[in-house]
Write a structure and sequence with these properties.
mainly beta, Maltoporin, Chain A, 3 helices, 37 strands, disordered N terminus
Length: 680
């Protein structure tokens, strides 16, 4: 594979043909709808995924505020005023027939939220009126032969300056996995316990959403959106436990997680002082009830176990105002302010079962608390082209917040941060592009990290930490890319990050470990991305793409005093995908994987070993321009995942572990059939 890729790149550099897309003076690359016709996409999501060298950014839904939840896609130059509807969901609701073109440019072309992003996609829709939509149905098969259907329908109606969008979807995600655990003494390796496990997982979820968009001019727009979603996760585990020299047990673990979410948002924009002023509002509520029950049983007699219930309510209200002007003495400028109120109410009840099933409550350090944050952020950014080939982007944010914890803990603190950014974009010609950026960033805190809770599946407790503060970093990144073989792209990124108060895991006075702050840490980044058509090499409709990423992290461990990676950080990640489009038929295969990664706890090293490579494949048939039938397979290699846990007594200051637990799980090969149909 490496030799083949090198040959492709070498041939491309020698003969760089005329490009299939256009590039303007601001660095904006445009792809017309005709560029994507060979892929016959069903919706806008499939269009965006076919943009050469572009990777859709994943944004966590629980990121607080509006500005920090921006991904790297806008629609008609505007960001959707919704957070809980991910950009994948929004794009999947837009039929591909309504996409006029796709623009790709530096982030500051599209607003302050995107300042510093190397690439942002602007999806331009047609002005075509009438009704259009997409219907999708999927049938999944798990390894034991059970079949599970799911589907979604979305519609888009355009009338004059207004566009209405409605969608409803049901996901019936269910799967089973089998495996085993071994528990051994160290250093002898003597087997202490063998466990045979089968997990049955059901995760049905559904959503209904709608929006109204109005656009009468560049600065005369309005939008309203609403969404409701629920998730009902269920896990049932059978666990046959065979202790060496002991009595066999028949343990059971059940998890029932209920999640409901409501969101209402909107924005309005009007002309002002040669630009536009926009007001954005958003309100979200998330209710969660988690119930877990772990029982240790000898035949039908309960000899131990735990029960836990977690009730939480997350509320967020955001108001954001901004003024933007595309041409202010040669500069494109934007400035504004955002205010947000976030609150988490959480109560955890943990119980233990005695030898005869008697239930006793277990008090945790912080199991009943309210976390509240009042936050305000002012921002300004300006960008301009210094020459036809050189562009500079400047941004400055100031964040001020007041954080309080009430209940089992009493903590109050005020935080404030300056967050400057600088980005330089240079296009010397012949398909080359270089970017360099430096920025100061401040991480967000997970409110759940303030609360204590047990992990019954892992037989451990996570302590809460009311004194947690956000880490802050200086990030430097340099990018060089080259267009090859027409619309192909090869990109290399190098970066370095220095972080103060690294958020990781720290010991607590109660004898647990919890999320907390360590000292200074560093990250070294090297990433390569390629997306190359191979038709000119004799393979009609073929395309190979992929990425190789290295992120080396280092921070001083609070127990050993030695340097180690950040918890949960995998240094190497890779992905290679092949796709070939042959008229009405397409097929492809993908390989992905990453290095093992470890969570460094007080008395445990918990390491996950992914089943590499994870292989996917698909075959696609398009009987009409409106209908696509796809047969896909996940985990084609039938690889298992593994997890290793090394235990230390009393903690990791003891150099040698005394026990090791190995867990092996496999969902096996997972085929599924999908039918997509566009109408209108």
């Amino acid at each position: 594979m490496r030799v083949a890729l090198a040959a492709v790149v070498a041939a491309a550099v020698v003969a760089a043909p005329a490009l299939a897309q256009s590039v303007d003076a601001s660095g904006r690359t445009t792809y017309d709808a005709a560029f994507f016709q060979r892929f016959q996409p069903a919706n806008a999501l499939e269009v965006v995924r076919r943009v050469p060298g572009f990777t859709l950014e994943q944004v966590e839904e629980d990121v607080r505020g509006f500005g920090q939840a921006a991904g790297n896609v806008v629609i008609n130059g505007q960001r959707p005023s919704s957070k809980s509807d991910t950009i994948e969901v929004v794009l999947a609701r837009i039929p591909a027939t309504r996409v006029a073109r796709v623009e790709v440019g530096p982030g500051t072309l599209f607003g302050a939220e995107y300042s510093g992003k190397a690439q942002v996609v602007n999806l331009i829709l047609t002005g075509e009126g009438g009704l259009a939509g997409t219907a999708t149905g999927t049938l999944r098969r798990q390894y034991d032969g059970k079949l599970f259907p799911e589907g979604s329908v979305s519609t888009l109606l355009r009338r004059g300056n207004s566009t209405f969008n409605a969608a409803i979807g049901v996901n019936n995600e269910q799967t089973s996995e089998e495996g085993y655990d071994t528990l051994r003494a160290l250093p002898s390796g003597e087997l202490l316990e063998y466990r045979r496990k089968i997990n049955t997982i059901e995760d049905p979820n559904a959503f209904v959403s709608g929006s109204w968009d109005y656009k009468a001019g560049q600065f005369e727009t309005a939008r309203f959106n609403a969404r409701y979603a629920f998730d009902r996760f269920r896990l049932s585990q059978t666990n046959q436990v065979l202790p060496t020299g002991g009595t066999a047990r028949d343990d059971r673990l059940t998890q029932r997680f209920h999640f409901d979410e409501w969101e209402v948002g909107g924005d309005v924009q009007r002309p002002l002082l040669g630009g536009g002023v926009k007001l954005i509002g958003l309100a979200t509520r998330r209710d969660r009830i988690d119930r877990e029950l772990s029982l240790l049983r000898v035949r039908s007699d309960v000899i131990g176990g735990n029960e836990q219930q977690v009730r939480s309510q997350r509320d967020e209200a955001v108001l954001r105002g901004l003024w933007t002007r595309p041409d202010f003495h040669g500069w494109s400028v934007e400035t504004g302010v955002e205010g947000a109120l976030n609150r988490l109410r959480s109560k955890v009840d943990l119980f233990g079962f005695g030898a005869e099933g008697a239930r006793t409550r277990i008090d945790l350090p912080v199991d009943d608390a309210v976390v509240t944050e009042h936050r305000a952020e002012g921002f300004a950014n300006a960008s301009r082209s210094l020459t036809a080939k050189l562009r500079i982007d400047l941004a400055l944010n100031y964040e001020l917040s007041r954080l309080t914890v009430d209940g089992d803990a009493d903590a109050k603190r005020s935080l404030h941060f300056w967050k400057p950014k600088l980005n330089v974009d240079w296009r010397p010609g012949d398909g080359w592009r270089a970017q360099a950026s430096i920025a100061r960033t401040v991480a967000q805190l997970r409110f759940e990290d303030f609360i204590s809770a047990a992990e019954l599946a892992n037989e451990r407790v996570n302590g809460g930490n009311a004194e947690l503060v956000p880490q802050r970093s200086w990030e430097a990144l340099a990018t060089v890319e080259k267009q090859v073989l027409g619309d192909g792209l090869v990109k290399l990124e190098l970066g370095y990050t220095r972080t103060a108060l690294v958020q990781d895991r720290v010991p607590t006075p109660e004898g647990f470990d919890a999320p907390g702050n360590l000292g200074d840490g560093t990250s070294k980044i090297a990433r390569a991305t390629f997306d190359v058509p191979v038709a000119r090499l004799g393979i009609k409709g073929g395309r190979i793409s992929g990425r190789l990423s290295y992120v080396g992290t280092s921070v001083q461990d609070p127990f050993t005093g030695e340097q180690r990676p950040y918890s949960g950080a995998s240094p190497f990640v890779y992905e290679v995908n092949w796709r070939q489009d042959l008229g009405d038929f397409a097929w492809g295969v993908g390989f992905s994987g990453d290095d093992p990664y470890t969570f460094y706890r007080r008395n445990e090293l918990d390491t996950l070993y992914p089943g590499n490579p994870y292989i996917t494949a698909f075959a696609e048939y398009r009987p009409t321009r409106s209908t696509t039938v796809t047969l896909s397979v996940d985990n084609l290699g039938d690889f298992s995942t593994r997890r290793g846990r090394l235990f230390f007594d009393p903690d990791r200051r003891t150099p040698d572990p005394f026990r090791v637990e190995d867990r092996v799980r496999n969902q096996h090969i997972l085929p599924y059939l999908t039918i997509k149909h566009n109408f209108g």
